[in-house]
Amino acid sequence: MCGIVGYSGEKQAKPILISGLLKLEYRGYDSAGISTIEKTGISNIKVKGRVATLEDIAEINKLTGTIGIAHTRWATHGKPSTINSHPHLDNDKSFAVVHNGIIENYSELRDFLISKGYKFLSQTDTEVVPNLIHYYHTNEHLGFLESVRRACLDLKGSFALEIISSLFPDSMIVVRKDSPLVIGKGDGETFISSDIPALLSFTKNFYLLNDMEFAVIKKGDISFYDINLKPISKEVKTMEWDASSAEKDGFADYMLKEIHEQPRAIRETIGAHLSPNKPCEFDELNIPNLANFEQIYLVACGTAMHAGLVAKNLFEKLCHISTAVDIASEFRYRDPIINDKTLAIFISQSGETADTLAALKLAKSKGATTIAISNVIGSSITREADYFTYTHAGPEIAVASTKAYTSQVVLLSLMAIYFAQKLNSSNNNLLQELKKEILALPEKIDAVIENTDSKIHDLAKVICKEKDIFFIGRGADYNVAQEGSLKLKEISYIHSESYAAGELKHGTIALIENGITVIAILTDEKLMEKSISNIQEVITRGAKTVVITNLELPNKKYDYIFEIPKTSSLISPVLSVIPLQMLAYYVSKEKGLDVDKPRNLAKSVTVE
Ligand code: G6P
User: Based on C-alpha coordinates, what's the Rg of the chain?
Assistant: First the structure.
């Protein structure tokens, strides 16, 4: 988490840095800060709070420097405060650093530097970095790049760093390891950021750094070096996203815009993989000997993991390969059984989530064949995996994921169909039917939004006053219950639980009392009677019920019922999740909360 931005060129850096920070705020918003090279040395203005608070500081208007770095923070080491905000400077105020990531051995490095006479002002892990650079520069008489490299070799953990220096006022150095950083190429100017959308209004051309590669930036001139400081060359990648796709486009919030963008996101994701009456195509996944795989793992965090839960059913049903879904932070430490008969699929909107990336490296090192699914071209997991493919949801800015989730479910469904075709493991009629249903999803999503919007808004006015909400379902409906519950809690701060409907009576039903709201999802004909019985059990105990269904229910005595279009129960989450996303959105709005930037959360979790 944390967002970093940098500029080197002929223009004043400040407005460009502020514009970048505002777009990166979704990554963290505990505090913000900016440093530029001024005639008097390095400026350093920082504040607890949001970027808007930073802009209010009078001093910021005096900055005229054309090279600068800036940061928006999601606190890890040291509470949110002005002193803990970035940029951090060394004791001599010669080097300024912004950092995204975690320096795991900072305490040891701090002790070393203290023994050499350095003093520390903050509680952060980052403050060791400018001091270490200063140490190598003054004690070992190394140049700027050599000093930065030596400091980086001492660091354990993850880092994307931007460094400027009053001693080398024309240069900025950037480096990354396990944290995201992109370099935008301009005309005689260079932009740096934690992600691509923040720079789209300035450039569409980017360089991507690999771990422990350095870039020395002097306005439009960029020199790249490997870990041994051997010069290397880099290709420019041009991004297809346009700047307006990263703007609100007339919607009140990014989340609402992204909910409405789902039909388009899915159409784009289906893209060339599927056309009517044709087999599914995945040129990028030309994996030999598919039939040798005995185990599939789907590994991810948060909402991406929920997409994996839906896909598990598809892989098992269509490919007949045992499939397990793992939370990346668990997978990486639980010593899973992995060998050359393992296919491990990693799902990540950003492609930068630290745990997902580490889990991928682990699976690869143990001999698995790895596939990365990401929404961001060139993101870290795509560079690490044996194979990769993309969702085409466009930039997702709201912290609560919506269009990335439905696009991931669709892409994974297509992938399961593609493998089933190659393995000849599934009934052809079932595959044809499923493909037809997938192609119809975008239109059906439009219908769900149109038909449920105002009723969901009314329901939100009731739910916003509640303290606990329960979501239940069976099969894929349970997977949607999990996602619906996560959406509600993350942006409305209402406590919610999701349960497999059949499991309720093993404990959770004890919490159901008069007036509690239970939201049930029912889209699987085979499980209808069982689910109806479970709903009846909570009604008997006084619950108010909200039902989301595409089935002909025998009785409709529920407090709220939302009817959605029919589709295959294997992919129904793409439709049934929509009212739940909208409910979370409207509840959050009713409570007057910041929908796009929920407290304590960040969009891209690049620390463990
Ligand atoms: C954070 C975000 C979620 C996201 C998860 C995984 O928790 O708030 O929206 O699902 O990270 O992110 P990824 O980029 O790996 O999909």
Answer: 25
